[in-house]
Amino acid sequence: MRLTDSMIRGIGMTSQRTRERLVNRLREKGIVDSRVLDIILQTPRHLFVDEALASRAYEDTALPIGYGQTISQPYVVARMTELLLAGGVPRRVLEVGTGCGYQTTVLAQLVTDVFTVERIEALQQQARQRFRRLGLRNVRSRHTDGQWGWSQHAPFDGMLVTAAPEAVPEELLGQLNVGGRMVIPVGTAHLNRLLSRLYDRAMIWAGHRHAPSYLAGLSFAESSFFPIPPDVMLAPMSLAKPKRAWHYAAVATVASALGGAVGYLIGMFAFDLVQPLLHRHGYWDAFLKARGWFDTWGFWAVFLAGFTPIPYKVFTISAGVVAMPFLPFLVASLIGRGARFFLVSGLMLWGGERMQRAVRTYIDRVGWLLLIAAVLLFFILRS
Questions:
Q1: Are 172 and 182 in contact, with CB atoms under 8 Å apart?
Q2: Cis upstream peptide for 44 (omega within 30°)
Q3: What digits encode the pLDDT tens for the residues 201-227?
Q4: What are the residues facing 13 on neighbouring strands?
Q5: Cβ count near 296 (within 10 Å)
Q6: Do the bridges between strand 113-118 and strand 92-96 make them parallel or antiparallel, or are there none, so unpaired?
Q7: Among residues 34, 55, 72, 256, which one is catalytic?
Q8: Is 224 a catalytic residue?
Q9: pLDDT in tens, 221-270
Q10: Helix residue ranges, H only, the chain
């Protein structure tokens, strides 16, 4: 099926005005090549993602395309293209990593010929169909079994590589023309971007139709036995769908309180079975601290637990061990956990797209600093 003008132009969240906002954001981030910005403006990114994600196509973020892959963040596409053109417009360009074909389409509108290779055959076939529907006659695509490049068509004046090897592959260098330019992420940057990649994955999960159920399950489990807090899902879900932010906070609150009730019952009736696990997983000191809080604060210990670094499950189990009255425990859980989760969703809702961009930009630096601080705090408390 050929694409119509209306399909390419888009409507609503895929309209020209939405694309102009994306281009303005890229300009604010430092993209200065007007040729690249013009092509980004003209290229219908919503045609390269699933229809369910079309409304998010012009956000400056990566989105899932299936097979564990994502369409690149528009800033990354723009910046890599800008770097490729910095030494002059290359005539023949090799792209390693076709993906959904969005980067390929951008390149095809700027250079004479594009040769693109992809290791996932299904993605390569889908991309080829898009090129045909868009009428791109200067693109040649190929499924590759993991070898670098396309030696039969070498040499190339330019290369753009989406993978991040430890070093530049010699096989690719041999296919680059004298004076050619290669744009490739090299080295251990993929480790430095670990948290941002996890964040991108969380944003993808947040858009899943079963995400609220997953959030409820995680909130329930974390209150009684699971180590990962629900905030890691609640925050990106609230960013991904702001209109549902308060609903997600309520889901997390109710599920967490119900999970806390299970933790309470574990502490009351099965503490002898749980005690060895607390020792084994390093929660015993935290448990003793929680019991001390109960001796001093009672009801307020549960309420404040939502705002402390001590795992909440320790408080729920402790409440059962000391036989705290169940109704005050349940009320304190609902208020304390609700205050925390509604605060998280409220911050995401208040920050909106600015918050999403800020989180995505600084998550690696802030995340690693917090991880280092947590490790230091652990050893300080152990000593």
A1: yes
A2: no
A3: 555 566 667 888 988 988 898 877 676
A4: none
A5: 9
A6: parallel
A7: 72
A8: no
A9: 887 767 667 877 888 788 777 888 999 999 999 999 999 888 888 877 87
A10: 5-9, 16-28, 34-42, 74-85, 102-108, 121-134, 170-173, 189-192, 194-206, 211-222, 231-240, 245-269, 271-280, 284-297, 299-305, 312-321, 326-382
